[in-house]
């Protein structure tokens, strides 16, 4: 990790009691949502519109199931 990144992470840690956890992993959450809708019989186009994702993301999530 670069020195500036380390400083940027340490500064909020020192000022608050909440630890730095990083970004939320949306891919696992999105995969679960896509899988649930696919097994419920919802069409691909409807899944993409409901979750606001592209066609490529939809195919990627479905291929990982």
Task: Give a description of the structure.
The chain has helices spanning 3-15, 26-39, 44-51, 55-63. The two termini are 33 Å apart. It has a domain at 37-65. 68% of the residues lie in helices and 0% in strands. It is elongated. It is built from four helices and no strands. The chain is mostly helical.
User: What is the overall silhouette?
Assistant: elongated
Low-confidence stretches: none
Let me know the largest β-sheet: none
List the secondary-structure elements in sequence, H or E.
Answer: HHHH
Instruction: Give me the oligomer status.
Output: single chain
User: What structural class results from the helix and strand content?
Assistant: mainly alpha
Number of helices: 4
The end-to-end distance, rounded to whole angstroms, is: 33 Å
What's the number of extended β-strand segments?
Answer: 0
Q: Can you give me a brief rundown of this structure?
A:
With 65 residues, the chain is an all-alpha fold. The chain has helices at residues 3-15, 26-39, 44-51, 55-63.
Which secondary structure elements does this structure contain, and how are they paired or packed?
Blueprint: H1 3-15, H2 26-39, H3 44-51, H4 55-63
Supply database-style keywords.
elongated, 4 helices, about 60 residues
């Amino acid at each position: 990790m670069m020195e500036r990144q380390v400083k940027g992470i340490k500064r909020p840690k020192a000022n608050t009691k909440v630890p730095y956890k990083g970004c939320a992993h949306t891919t696992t959450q999105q995969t679960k949502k896509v899988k649930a809708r696919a097994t419920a019989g919802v069409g691909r186009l409807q899944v993409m519109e409901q979750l606001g994702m592209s066609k490529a993301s939809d195919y990627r999530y479905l291929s990982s199931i």
